[in-house]
Structure formats: structure tokens, C-alpha cells
Amino acid sequence: MNNFIAYCGLNCEKCEARIATINNDNDLRQKVARHWSELNHVEITPEMINCTGCRIEGVKTPFCDHLCPIRLCAKDKGYPTCGSCAEMDGCKKLAMVTGNNKEALSNLEQYK
After folding, report:
1. How far apart are CA 15 and CA 84, in angstroms?
2. How far apart are CA 90 and CA 55, in angstroms?
3. What is the Cα–Cα distance from 94 to 32, expressed in whole angstroms?
4. Among 111, 110, 102, CA closest to 10
5. What pTM was computed for the model?
6. Which of 40, 103, 108, 110 has a C-alpha 20 to 30 A away from that of 88?
7. Regions of the chain with pLDDT less than 70
8. Own/partner pairs, 54-59, CB within 8 angstroms, 24+ separation
């Protein structure tokens, strides 16, 4: 199992927050913070853009660590990803990601 595949199926290796963290790239942190602030209509600061990956040991963004309903649910159920959950296909939480990201859905289907 690829540990960079998040609980929701996104590939953390492609995430700009992880790339900024791994490369200690403050310019990329600023870019991601601006973009995510606009998308989510909340203030996200560059200092919040630190993440090693959803299922990788290490630092997480505040959302990923404490607020992501998908991550919290899968961890609570003890699943390595949502692909292990019998409720995956009808899950409204997961559909927030897989509904508009076919790559994430495909990643999870590999783990059914």
C-alpha cells in the first residue's frame, strides 16, 4: 500500500503543502495559504502549511490533523484508507473529494 495515498484517496506526494514542507519552501507556503484561504473563505497562514502526508508520521496542517471529517472517520474505524470501508460508495463525506477527483476514487478502489 502506498502510504502517500490519503484516507480520501488523494495522493499526498502531489500536494503542494507537502512539497513546501519537504523542501522548506516558504514562497510555496505563501502561495498555498493564499489559494486555500480563497477556496475555503477562512484565513490560512503560511505557518499552517506544514504537512508530511495524511497517513505519514509527522506534522499535519491544522485541518488535516484535527478537522478533516474523512481522516477522523477512517482513523476512528481503524481503516488504512476509505477503500477498506463497506460504506465508501455512498459516503457523503468522501464524496466531497471523490465526487470531483476521479484519481482519488481510483486510488481508493485499488484498496477495496
Report:
1. 23
2. 23
3. 22
4. 102
5. 0.89
6. 40
7. none
8. 54/6, 54/7, 54/8, 54/10, 54/12, 55/3, 55/4, 55/5, 55/6, 55/7, 55/12, 55/80, 55/81, 56/3, 56/4, 56/12, 59/21
65: which DSSP letter? I
C-alpha cell at 109: 478502489
Kindly report, residue by residue over 42-66, the tens digit of the pLDDT: 999 999 999 999 999 999 999 999 9
Q: Where are the domains of the chain?
A: 10-61, 68-112
Cα(59)–Cα(13) distance, rounded to whole angstroms? 15
> Mapping DSSP to helix (H, G, I), strand (E, B) and coil, where does residue 43 land?
coil
What distance in Å separates the CA atoms of residue 55 and residue 53, rounded to the nearest whole number? 6
71 Cβ contact list (under 8 Å, min separation 6): 6, 7, 8, 54, 64
- If you search the block for the grid coordinates 502517500, which residue do you land on? 4
Q: Which residues pair with 5 in a beta bridge?
A: 11
Extract the C-alpha cell encoding 31.
502561495
